Amino acid sequence: MDVDVAVIGGGVVGLSAARALAERGASVCVLESDTRLGHGTSTRNSGVIHAGLYYPEGSLKASLCVEGRDRLYAYCASHAVPHVRCGKLVVAHDTAQIDALERLLARAHGNGVTNAELIDQAFVLRREPHVTSAPAAIWSPDTGIVEAEAFVRALAQDCRAHDVALVVDSPVVGAAPKGAGVELTTPHERIDAAAVVNASGLYADRVSATLGAQPFAIHPCRGQYVELAPNRRHWVNGLVYPLPHGVGLGVHLVRTTWGTVMLGPTTDYQESRDDYEGNRLPTEAFLEPARALLPALTLADLQPGSTGIRAKLHGPDKPFADFLIERDPVNPVVIQAAGIDSPGLTSSLAIGEMVARLWRG
Fold it and tell me: Does the predicted TM-score (pTM) go above 0.70?
């Protein structure tokens, strides 16, 4: 196969990049190591469309989240992808946290999320009658949820319509310079590409090394969820978050497009990039964090849920690392799209456009 661009990774970032590149006239193939597209981080998450509240002003996460949010809502509407612009509450647990809410609100406004506002307990109770212990909250009307699996299917169909070759079960096992480009080797084929996009998620650091590009480290971070029992799903209408703390956003409540309610995720760094089930926390571990949002909750109201693994560019000792999206400084044939943790799903279409611009540039 001889292509202008080989995209390594068939999740939402890789598919979005392939789509954007093909729309600009590039011949593109996507190489996915799994037997299914989007089977990893892209669909093992809470499916939240973030508004852009949390990220440092001027960061790629801040700008691409806001751009990606608007692109994603428009894409879902035009491609019949199930989604809901349900809004989100970020609640204070007591009056001592109101100052922290105000600081978060100022950051949101600095990122261009100007319709986020500070609201009182009466507003909270109108939106979420079972969230009874919050004296105040931030209301973010542009936050929503999307069915990630349907989004992956729509992107794949879009790519095929633009003649993108989608090749699954094809991990890149070797790379060598060839002319001005690179020859990639998988267990099944060789691909000559003028440019390569590294969108390989949890394995982006290893792929970068294979490509002779810059070194960096991916830190796998597993998130575990529980769910509300079916007879308690009516307790949650949309999205309810605590104030962010530590390296994550805290255990929060997410009502999915199909009606279940997820609680989580945890933030647990681990060595393995594919262990989704080992050393699971007991359901009891979620009770107290969840009761901070739903005081009437009991252990009987919870049941085991799913897990996912984020591809972070920082370990537990640091609070933040930005996306790595750039023409590689060591091997300029490579465009990096790495370290795409939250808000990666929200930002994916905007990341794809940025990758396409880097290719053109």
Answer: yes
